[in-house]
User: Which sequence fits this backbone?
């Protein structure tokens, strides 16, 4: 396909526009001055200070624990849901209901989702002290939106697999357990891994759900960045943002490779 | 119903199979029901309650919150909330429109790359969108600050008072929104462009259609499925957005997301916040109804 040069340059300009914010932050993270945007020399200092700031380290730890735990739960639940949805002969009407249930977390604006959780946790707290705001309530919230993304990713893999291998396994007298272990799961692995990575990144990135469900002791990196943007940003935040950006790029490239296999 | 069938070496019936499938299904279904559907319903219930003197919830049935939503307050009718709702609709509409205009060249550009590098270019579009929204929004605060070249240029052109920045302003909100949502339009649009039937475009050109006519009659209809998904993925979250207007808009440019957040924090008026949330949900559902009718053959994710 030949493309009008005008279109190509518009496309490249748009791409540059998307990268401009990250570029600015990355450049400033190496800037010597503490205040202002004037360039005054190169330094690694902010990166060094980043790793000796206890608040940031604590927030990083919370972010990763939260993402890891919620991804594990969401991956198991989402995968089971996708298998059930694709491989069991549900009546058409229940199938439609289940699909709507699956799309619900994807299409609900996250602020409504978050506010609903605040209300529900308030009500649950009246019954049990388990629901004090903190990492636990954040995990509950994150898993809820992650399940849908895992299930949708695994489901699209299941659809592309077709039913031939199921039938082959059945014809060759595989038991159901053997079929799941030796046929279904190995074939699904790329989809499961891609879904899990998507869920993990979504959790790392999430601000709104965390903002509403976090407790006083469960600061995460996005919450910390938000708070410091409101208070006045320090160059450590530039360095932190740049590092997060780099980690995200690596995760995206890794999941690209996995899904293409 | 009790038709017998053989399934993995077992003689079974569909009813038995459902029961087995239910075990796969229940954990996730219970999770979503318990933490999304029931909380959502409790939000509905809450919207009919009243705010107590100290910000607590008083369970008296009342339609007061919905009257307030429509603008009837103790000081007579004032359309503040309606204006915020309409502004949210407008901002979401303009954002979506600009995203579409910018996404077309990008989608065609990616589709025109050789197959080997095509997915790399697509990844390049997606990467900024995986970077935390708060960080990107904050980065725009910096880029639009008074001593950054953009503001300096606007000052030199006389568009801006000296020493003032381009943020907070509605313009800054739009810029933030476009950076946040552009990839959501590019990705589905690209998948439509990639499958484009070029023979129709050639036919249009053979028949001496103008470029504009070729676009609207041979290309546009073919990209409609992808475009519909892009519009839904942008329009709905753009309406509920609160981070971007909060950080880039200043106090005078609130959207419905900010209004909801205020009710749950600053004003501690949960019942009213719940009513506003339901207003937003209704707008969302209308958007989805349109999606159901237009974009059936495309998956949402």
Assistant:
């Amino acid at each position: 396909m030949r493309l009008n040069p005008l279109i190509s340059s518009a496309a490249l300009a748009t791409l540059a526009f998307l990268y401009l914010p990250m570029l600015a932050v990355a450049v400033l993270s190496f800037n010597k001055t503490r205040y202002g945007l004037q360039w005054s020399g190169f330094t690694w200092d902010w990166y060094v200070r980043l790793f000796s700031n206890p608040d940031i380290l604590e927030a990083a730890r919370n972010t990763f624990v939260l993402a890891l735990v919620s991804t594990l739960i969401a991956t198991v639940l989402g995968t089971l849901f996708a298998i059930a949805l694709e491989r069991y002969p549900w009546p058409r009407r229940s199938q439609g209901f289940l699909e709507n249930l699956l799309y619900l977390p994807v299409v609900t604006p996250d602020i409504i989702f978050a506010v609903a959780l605040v209300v529900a946790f308030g009500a649950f707290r009246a019954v049990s002290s388990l629901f004090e705001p903190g990492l636990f309530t954040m995990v509950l919230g994150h898993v809820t939106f992650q399940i849908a993304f895992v299930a949708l990713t695994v489901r699209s893999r299941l659809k592309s697999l077709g039913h031939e291998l199921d039938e082959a396994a059945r014809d060759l007298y595989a038991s159901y357990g053997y079929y799941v272990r030796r046929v279904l799961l190995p074939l699904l692995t790329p989809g499961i891994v891609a879904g899990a990575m998507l869920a993990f990144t979504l959790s790392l990135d999430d601000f709104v759900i965390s903002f509403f469900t976090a407790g006083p002791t469960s600061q995460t990196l996005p919450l910390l960045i938000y708070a410091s943007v409101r208070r006045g940003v320090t160059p450590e935040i530039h360095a932190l943002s740049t590092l997060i950006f780099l980690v995200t790029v690596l995760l995206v490239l890794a999941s690209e490779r996995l899904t293409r296999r | 119903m009790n038709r017998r069938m053989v399934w993995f070496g077992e003689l079974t019936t569909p009813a038995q199979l459902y029961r087995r499938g239910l075990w796969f299904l229940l954990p996730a279904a219970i999770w979503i029901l318990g933490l999304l559907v029931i909380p959502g319903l409790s939000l509905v219930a809450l919207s009919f309650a009243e705010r107590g003197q100290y910000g607590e919830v008083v369970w008296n049935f009342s339609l007061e919150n919905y009257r307030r939503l429509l603008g009837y307050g103790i000081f007579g009718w004032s359309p503040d909330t309606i204006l915020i709702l309409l502004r949210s609709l407008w901002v979401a509409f303009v954002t979506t429109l600009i995203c579409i205009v910018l996404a077309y060249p990008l989608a065609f550009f990616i589709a025109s790359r050789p197959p080997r590098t095509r997915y790399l270019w697509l990844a390049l579009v997606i990467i900024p969108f995986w970077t935390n929204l708060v960080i990107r929004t904050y980065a725009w605060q910096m880029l639009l600050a008074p001593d950054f070249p953009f503001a300096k240029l606007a000052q030199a052109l006389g568009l801006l008072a000296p020493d003032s920045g381009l943020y907070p302003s509605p313009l800054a909100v739009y810029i933030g929104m476009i950076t946040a949502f552009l990839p959501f339009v590019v990705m589905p649009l690209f998948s439509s462009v990639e499958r484009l039937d070029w023979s129709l475009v050639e036919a249009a050109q053979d028949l001496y259609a103008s470029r504009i006519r070729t676009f609207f009659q041979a290309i546009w209809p073919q990209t409609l499925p992808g475009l519909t998904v892009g519009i839904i993925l942008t329009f709905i979250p753009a309406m509920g957005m609160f981070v971007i207007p909060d950080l880039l808009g200043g106090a005078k440019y609130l959207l419905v997301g900010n209004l909801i957040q205020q009710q749950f924090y600053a004003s501690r008026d949960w019942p009213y916040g719940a009513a506003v949330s339901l207003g937003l949900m209704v707008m969302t559902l209308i958007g989805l109804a349109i999606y159901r009718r237009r974009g059936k053959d495309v998956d949402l994710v």
